[in-house]
Specification:
Elements (H helix, E strand, L loop, with lengths): L1 H14 L1 H29 L11 E7 L11 E2 L2 E2 L2 H8 L3 E9 L4 E5 L5 E3 L2 E4 L3 H4 L4 E4 L10 E5 H8 L8 E5 L8 E9 L12 E4 L12 E2 L1 E5 L5 H23 L4 H5 L6 E5 L2 H4 L7 H29 L5 H9 L4 H38 L11 H27 L4 H6 L6 H37 L9 E4 L5 H8 L4 E6 L11 E6 L2 E9 L12 E4 L13 E5 H6 L8 E4 L4 E9 L14 E4 L15 E5 L4 H15 L8 E2 H7 L2 H35 L1 H9 L4 H35 L11 H27 L2 H5 L3
Parallel strand pairs: 7-12, 9-11, 19-24, 21-23
Antiparallel strand pairs: 1-2, 1-14, 1-15, 3-13, 4-7, 4-14, 5-6, 5-10, 8-11, 9-12, 10-11, 16-25, 16-26, 17-25, 18-19, 20-23, 21-24, 22-23
Length: about 800
Amino acid sequence: MFKLNLKIALRNLYKNKAYTAINIAGLALGLAGFIFILLYINYEKSYDTWDKELDKVYQVQELDLFSLKEGKAEWRGESDGRLREMIKAGLPNVVAVTHVYEAEQDEAIVIDNKGAFFINDVQRADSMFFSVFPYKFIHGNPAGALRNLNDMVISEDFAKKYFGDVNPVGKVVKLTSQAWVNQTTHYTITGVIAKPETPSIFDFNVLVQAPNLKFTDRALYFRPNYVKFSEKQNEQNINQSLQKIYEPFRAAMLKKWKWSPSEYLKNGNKPAVRLKPFYSVHQEPLQQEDWLKQLKPIILLSSLLLLISIINFMNMFTAQAVSRAKEVGIRKVTGASRASLIKQFLLETALQCFCALILGVILLELFLPYLNEQFSLALSIADSYSIGLVSLQLIGLVTLITLLSGIYPAIFLSSYDPHNVLKGNFAQGKKGSKLRVALVGMQFVIAVGFFIGILIISSQIKYMESRDPGFDPTGIIYVNEPMNKVLSDRIRNIEGVKYVAVNNGNVRRHPNITADYKYNNEVKELNTVFVNLEGLQAVGAKLINGRFFDKLHKQDTSRTVIINESLEKLYGGDMLNKYITYNNDSVRVQVVGIIKDIQVTGFDKVSPPTIYTASEFNATDYTNDGFANLVTYDTKKEKHVLAEFNKIWRQASPDYPLSFSFLEHDFKKLFVSHERFKQMVKLFSLLSISLSMIGLFSLAAFMTRQRTKEIAIRKVLGADDKDIFFLLNKGYLWLMLGANVVACPLIYIAVQHWLAGFAYRIEMPVFPFLIAFIVSILVTALTVSVQVKNAVKANPVDALKYE
């Protein structure tokens, strides 16, 4: 029986090749987008699942003692290094404790005495690292891989790239972590580790032994620390035990520091520490949104696109109902049951869904390299660790879509009364017609929403890109290295160089350094940016009042500050030449300039009230040490400047190449995520509108066929072609009007929510709603007219000759 039904299904699908092709293509597009999201979710959920032993590993997280956010302390992934020994001695079932951290500066490596080059993903760890994390060694022994201070372990990919098929264990390489501070260190390669089957937060190329540090009462040494137990722990119980050890330790340290964190304690906070499962480090990141929250908009878009595809499929299937009515009638008369007919139509649906799945996978495979590049991913349909899961998900997805898209058409087609069908009367009631109209209307609600959304998103991004950021990033390169006076002077003397400056509040760096300042007997914690005397001029800061720092004013390196307009407004205005104090009023500084707000973090957040200081010792606990160098140059002489800069740098630091970025490019990167979102919405808009047009076309075909005799009778009674044309179009125009009425408030709410995430944003425009309405009406009229035209031009005799 199944074989017979399969033959009938294949014959019917082949007979209606055009409808079948459109059905499969439309569903394939929706499936391709949805499968991409499935792969993305699988990828993110697979983080750090490459070995069962990782279930026994925990990260030590400590409550931040030094800063509060809205009166509350935040957990941090780094903890005091002293805790490692305390955990080993004080907690049961501890196998090993280790710490690992990524190098703060770019790392340069020399292999076989060839030229130095930069490598990324360099990690430092102690000798217990491989006792906690069970990496598999291709070469070498985990027990002694990081035993000595100059030991180095490299990844499988790194070994293949730079050593080929040769076993690199025993080879000596040179590693330089900073041009002017650390000397070049020789490392011996002691092991090569296999790449984990799933992604990991430790995606390193090189792992070296971390230097041993001696703890002192005044030293703070916070690093990511990890503990491995002999078995999986009860989080609540183990954290209670750890807290009992931690509280007296931290209380003793605070007493030695002579520091009473009164503000910290008065908010109900207290020093605390906890252990979190290693798996949660990626799944529940601290101080940032997790991947699922970031992915929600894309999940929604892909789900809507798949929904449109399913609706389109249903409408296309039912549009063929009239042509298959007699087939159903004859099969029923010859003994076929309704259940067998439903199975027949579901089989046809399943065949189309299966073909759509194959086409969707092919489409995704073709576009996956582009999507991986756009989203900085490494997704693959055939990953060894996920191929089984993906296969099950795809089978489940096809089954679900077969039921969702096929059950109604199957019931609809199998419901024909053979008596009426064989008499020629197989018109259906209004119930099915209303449902099809509602489904197409839903398609257009989504399509119109997409269209309005992309217009508003494009307007917001254009506004952000054209808004004055308060500085000029063109013709500036950023070097994240301290430069001594001799080197700075040599670079300053290059023809075309305007400034060699320090500014740690630029786009690439902008560290969150704050300090307490007092004005009008009120203490405020304010953002503080370190510059040198040319640091603001170099970035083209815009002076509103007063002057910039200047070498002619000796007090500028110790007793003056410049503030931004946000801080001046916070203090009530007219701040020029006023005095601000810090360190319990022991230091008094004068405001010598007010500049326009410099927006270095994009436009998602308000530019904070900020103080700029050129003093080496200031209100913060940090010194203005000359990092974050900016070189401003004449863009017409860019090639000459860069060539001379590289030449001077190589002479001064042969083992550490020059590493820099263009500030203009860094600034544009702030908009990359928003631009990607815009492109994604644009793609989904195009696909949803296209599929909606197909759905409308199929509905028009179905409804026109249903009204063939009505049209013929009207023509016989003298109705003019133009009257019939407008009569048939009228219903669809009302449908589109209704879709706009429903879509507009929904997309208004959604876009308002999206715009609320920007500190600087456009007002909600009316123009996109008008454009969407006009375009949707025109597209509807054109799409429907193609079908209506054929019906109007048909000879009424052909429709009425059997009556």
